[in-house]
């Protein structure tokens, strides 16, 4: 059930597995083995500038090929990794691996290439996320802070304590950018946009998938884009699958798009070829 990098890539057992306690225990047991045996890899999905088609950056997305069940969706195993605390080490690995890869692409292709990494709220709040170590790692790679985007969700900002604020501020001081992922699906409180220094809003794919002229989703996308621009933020639309969606978003002034229309998430070698062919 696990072939290719595109849609429908995950094994179909997972929606059932993640629901019951037994399934979660099995995932946890296998996750610990997976960590120790380094079964995780990162795939990279291009983020494209809508007006020009230029590849602006990539989002790193973790992939786990289970020895017997094939590819398992992060939507199934990230929650288990969060509950068990495994997410801290996993997220640390994602950050180091993604930035190492990005440094290679910056040297070989785009000198202003950016890499986005998803940071779970559990990971962000844990003592395990040592931002000093992250900054040291970037220095060792010779990467400027602004070459990295941290994708967080409203869930993190909702119960942001002093520790979270300080980490966000430390990232900002180092130039690291912040994207608000899945925007519109959480407890979207506009006060977050005022209180926190954010660079990108990512419009959730649920608003993009049914986009059409004169639809409610179109109205919502337009409103988000206008608001974001007035606040000085850039907008990325997630889950762009058709040219019609791309055109509507472009007309609404959306800055960037990400989705199967441009490319599914790719293995590193495939992404290198994609970058080379899009130059
Ligand atoms: P996300 O950060 O919102 O990532 C976007 C998801 O949309 C990815 O799913 C991507 O494969 C999928 N996608 C991209 N283009 C399209 C499209 O055109 N149509 C549709 N229907 N889907 C598209 P993926 O890779 O399965 O990841 C799911 C979620 O798991 C991510 O959502 C993120 O919340 C989490 N995740 C993935 N990798 C990591 C990671 O390294 N760390 C953490 N903490 N979370 C991760
Ligand atoms: Mg994301
Ligand atoms: Mg998202
Ligand atoms: Mg700002």
TrEMBL record:
<feature type="domain" description="EAL">
    <location>
        <begin position="24"/>
        <end position="279"/>
    </location>
</feature>
<protein>
    <submittedName>
        <fullName>Diguanylate cyclase</fullName>
    </submittedName>
</protein>
